User: Fold these one by one.
Assistant:
Number 1:
Amino acid sequence: MDHIKGIMLINKPLNITSMDVIRTLRKVTGIKKIGHAGTLDPLAKGLLIVAFGKATKLINTYMGLPKKYKTTIDLRSFSTTDDMEGDKTQVKVNKIPSLNEIEEIIKKDFDVFSRFKQFSIT
């Protein structure tokens, strides 16, 4: 089966890792050369691009494509791990922010790309 090559799009569900998907595919197909184009957190669901055989050489191309993320934010609590898994501390919400206010805060305080520019390799 190692002669098979190609790309498969998988809708990864919650609570499994990207490598869980790869291990399952290897077991089911018998194909050893399988890779994915970017890890999805176990708490994330969504598109996992999987490559088989010689198509694994294309993974970097797919990793460079633009991505979109959708999230749900619960402003009623904080967690020790900043995600759904940590211990939660409830907080009182005096005013529910507007969508515009949330977007402005995200742009100002969570500009991930500008934070990592200092680490970029040229």
Note: The first helix runs from residue 18 to 29.
Number 2:
Amino acid sequence: MFCHFFQTLNRSLALVLGDFNVDWLSNTVSRNKLIHWCADNNFEQLIKSPTRKGTNSLGQPTQSCLDLCFVRHVNKRILTSTFDLPFSDHNGISITIGRNNIKPQISTIKKWKFTPDLVALARDNPPQADDSISDVNILASVLSSWLSNINTLAQSTKRIRSPPSSNPWYSSELSTLRAHYTSLPHRAQRNRYRNEYVSKVRSAKRAYIRNLSAKNENRAE
């Protein structure tokens, strides 16, 4: 399939468009294959409106979206439109590519710190309940309230600013792992490598947030 060949030519920025002879407006096997290919290779299909209008054998008007544009990009502003062509029953496709004004991302993180003073406070002020109370639900409510109060005292909230980049934590190792699993057939081995890829993506993102938070703390000191 051409799409599988094309995705190997460029690992980051890529664009392909034309008459794919697959109606994007219909739920067909061919369309679903293209949707899965987009998901596996980080492509997006931009043309959503009909690009060909005609009539069927019963004289009824028909419309389909056969002319497609698949793009894989980072921080690009891409505008598309369609227009009538005097020499074809298909519409033309217009594409404008520019730069996005990417703003720094603001993330809110929560931290918990059980200081010696807080531990001493918890020990000196254990949950209190009347000895006459035997209702388990009431006792559980008292304990939950006490734990919630300790949790509030230990918790702090911090807002951190990350650089204006879509995925600054995304490494070449992750890119290679993704290329490897997407090249495999849809079987157990592909699923295993895909799960490994997803796990490492989540770990990389968490590590990035932790490091960014630590840097901000050092600057504040």
Note: The CA atoms of residues 127 and 146 lie 6 Å apart.
Number 3:
Amino acid sequence: MAKYTLSYACGHGTFEKNMVGPIHLRGQKATWIEANTVCPACYKARQDAAAAELETLDATAPQTVSIKINTHNNAVELTITVTGKLIENQASLIDAGFKRHKTTQEIKFASEHKFTSVADLNDYLVSTKSSLNAMGYDCSIGIAGLDVPAIEAALAKISDMAAKKTADLAETAAERFGHQNSRNRKTNRSHWEKPLERQDLRQDRQLQFLCVRQEIRGDQ
């Protein structure tokens, strides 16, 4: 590793950069860094200009509302995305449960809601539609525009999967409990059987010893 002094692309001075890697490649790397690095003041100015441009676009953009339903992570999730005049309505959108997503191309607010029934979905759409209409958004979202049978099928499938998972967990727990009880019974039985086995073995040896002694003495 070595420290190099490089020049900003904007021409506003120099900066130091620690560079690693093969020495014969550091020159190419230094050239690329100089061509793509500006001073802190110029970087802040670019960021401010980009933010101002986004705010201008947001202020003049049409107020739109889009809705999307996704099925993932064993849940059905509704996502409502709004665009246009978001900075002006930022506080109201946050109060309505929306979160801000800012990229270099646009500013948007989105609300994500997981539901377990069509009735829950309908209630959420009605309340959200009322809030968005009060902010000036032409919101026509509703349960009528959705594929209700497909949503019900997805909810039923998720419910069946959850029930099956619960049953599998209960069965596994029962098997483990039964296996543990079996081991305990076996351990307890062995605890009492082993002394009896040793006692029987001692008696057999004593009997064998007496027989051998009688044979040696010639006793009948």
Note: The beta strands are 2-7, 14-19, 64-72, 75-83, 99-102, 107-115.
